Amino acid sequence: MTDTLPVLTSRNPADPADVLLQVPSPGAFAAVDTVERARAAQPGWLRAGAAARSAALNAVAAAVEAAAGELADLVVREVGKPLAEARAEVARTAAIWRYYAQAPFEHTGAVHETAAGEGLLLTRRRPHGVAGLITPWNFPLAIPTWKAAPALAVGNTAVLKPAPEATACALRLAEIVRHHLPEAVFTVLPGGATEGNALVSAVDVVSFTGSTPVGQAVARAATARGIPAQAEMGGLNAALVLPDADIEQAAGHIAAALAGYAGQKCTATSRVIAVGAALEPLREALSEALKALPVGDPKDPVTVCGPLIHEDARDQVVDAVRGLSALVGGTPLDGPGWYAAPTLVEKVSPGHRLLREEVFGPVASLLAADDLAHAVRIANSVPYGLVTSVHTADLNTALHGLDLLDTGMIRLNAPSTGVDFHLPFGGSKSSSHGPREQGRAALDFYTSSRTYTLAPAGPTS
Fold first, then answer.
1. Is 232 annotated as catalytic?
2. Distance of CA 400 to CAs 29, 275, 341, 369, Å?
């Protein structure tokens, strides 16, 4: 009697009765076989040359743009992302493919003089082989792209293991990509932990985005094998609001970063730290901004806050704020989907889970600080360090305190959410492990540096 492989089911979080697909998990042996097929394809992909790789990535960008409406609708349906954000993600996905399409023509090393005598010293960056990409559901097209595109550009092949909740999006992206690439150069491996563990055990370099516990396990497994690994994990991001800030603008930015896509972003704001006299006006302005924020059907173009990804996620948000003093929200919403109201709480005790753990929903705590130094200490007091937003009209004050913030990214007078894909992305402490991703940093991560010594072959004259 053989064991039956589990079945992956993807549901519409706005209407759980709507099942997008059900596919069997392939299992560990199939995962390793997928990696081996990608490994066999890698030398040919590299030898095809810079022009071929560049043309392929440009073709993928054009194909994504051509399918933009269909892809946005799929993102809305599978992961509940509001339509406006889904459209923006598709546009970003195409832009990332096009950005990395130029990378194959970049220099891969440098030439140096020898210290003495004839000859040359060369440095050269070469691809690792097969890149294993493990991605979450919240950016089902953009995150796989910002991992796959640079890996492919520099000559690796790639195997993508998406979150089960985003399987349909990953498979559709693979259809588009594979139409323009040789066989086995880019492959999607559906599955869960079994397939993910097998992938990490077989690939030559691994990039992970997801929860902190899983990311740390991936990093340990990769380190034990001696392969490069990067892991982008959780956040407990703070917004610092100084008394001289434009309070209405700050409230609008924070409300969007708190509740946009139901707070399901690692860069979402989950702690709001008001400095001195900013507390009272910010409390009022932020409460009003959250109340005015459109919540509902993600297919509606005006919706900002849609459903949570599944029932457990919705229940976790409700449980996290139970018994707290809520200025806004604090309750689930009626309807067939997994909705929770955008929530702002205050008077949260220092040991509460909201100030220690990432809840990953549309909820934040309002905290008070005596001055900027106090606000920085509060911001740094958590295990995470991904992104901090700072709202002030005084750049001198901001710059004085910004270097003391223990976060990988700082956004001034802007929401904590938002990614510039041509710059390095990553955090500190439990938010990130390994080198940064995106921008040119990704090209370095997906290659290894070699040093060559070229000495004369015969006697010198």
1. yes
2. 54, 15, 37, 17
